[in-house]
Amino acid sequence: MLSLVIHDSFFVKHSSLPHSPRLPYTVGMSAPFPMQVSLEFAINALAQILPPPTTLERPLVQAYGLTLAQDLTALVDHPNLDDSALDGIACHLEDTQNAAQDAPALLQLVGESAAGRIFTGTLERNQAVRIYTGAAVPNGATGIVPVERLEFGDADQVRVFQPARASDIRRKGSDFEMGQVGLPKGTLLGAAALSLAAAMGHPTVTVYQPYTVALLATGDELYAPGEAMPPGGVYNSNSVGLELKLRSLGLEVVVLPPSLDTPAALHTALEGAGKVDLLLTSGGVSMGKYDLVRDLLIEAGEVRFWKVQLKPGGPAICGLWQGLPLFGLPGNPVSSLVVFELIVKPALYQVWGRLDAPQRRFKAVATTPFKATPDKWAYWRGSLQFESGRPVVSDFGNQSSGVLRSLATCNALVIVPPQQPVAVGQEVEVIWL
Ligand code: AMP
Ligand code: MG
Q1: Nearest ligand for residue 261 CA
Q2: Distance 291 CA to ligand 2 centre (A)
Q3: Which of 72, 80, 196, 339 is the least crowded, having the fewest Cβ atoms under 10 Å away?
Q4: Which of 157, 186, 207 is the last residue of a domain?
Q5: What is the pLDDT of residues 281-323, one digit of tens each?
Q6: What distance in Å separates the CA atoms of residue 213 and residue 327, rounded to the nearest whole number?
Q7: How many angstroms is it from 316 CA to the middle of ligand 2?
């Protein structure tokens, strides 16, 4: 049976830390915290330890990518008058109802209405007003004729070759009415949503204060790209991908210098994070002797779970360290990004009450087989394409968690439940990355 032994050097260097019951824990049996948890459990566990989000007001453009923290109601009607959908004329419907190419109606132009420049008079029968898109429809006018079906003559006369249409009048409040909730709480504030906030009359919006996340890569083997690297060295790629994932969610990120695999170095690195909302680490959570994030949390923290029924990314750990939420991502580059996507991101969405789903999921037809694992949900890297409009997905090939190329070149994660391999032609659930 698999067991975990915490090495003695840990206790020497951390004699001041509270002393937990001696390990080993026998996996799945005697650990005083949940192990091999479901994805859902893991998401909830992280959501529970994140601090309750506070709110702040931001100018619209600075709220981009954040989550709306209150229902946003319209301060005006839009449009705030009946206006024209087209360039053309406004007139009485009755005056053009028999107009045709060979039998044009003749109307008298009495003025114009442009956007922001209202025609203030009232339109009599057989009169027309030149009108432009977005301009207010004059009193009395009931229809619009597009400019393409008009001929302007002398003496302000216009020949009309088709009947005017009422449907080309955009009614007051037809987009939104004053007092209507245009954007509900939990909305992701993208470009369209923030345009709508502006259209509704708001110069600012109330959003959830972005968490500050300290990002710490761990590993004696890590070097910064560009640095000379000895045999056995590895360029620190996780810090780049994870920082970008965090920033894409609008979070503030403190990227800490990578930590060596000694308890003292790890301790110092984490203390260096200062006051943050979440400690996000990569590496050091698996079954090895130098997996010290695991040791730190088990011995000196409070573990909420360790290991998830997930491949890649099984060894993730989550808990509190010195009162701060800590999420330990596995070090393998694919695992760290996949676990971020499948656990960290949905937990943040949960805390923010986000209305959009963290991932775009749908069914695709497998064009290669996908293997299943005995006890974990597999998220294999796949190539998703559309063949005659139908989504199909094929295996990337090398599914090792160390092959970052698989994640960088594929565009989907293919979800294979435990013990249920997928055959060619079968439908399978995919996440479109
Ligand atoms: P660990 O989870 O610490 O056992 O690391 C597992 C694998 O991921 C090892 O091959 C590490 O070298 C690699 N790895 C860990 N951290 C990083 C990182 N920040 N960037 C790239 N690879 C990493
Ligand atoms: Mg390591």
Answers
A1: 2
A2: 6
A3: 80
A4: 207
A5: 999 999 999 999 999 999 999 999 999 999 999 999 999 999 9
A6: 10
A7: 13
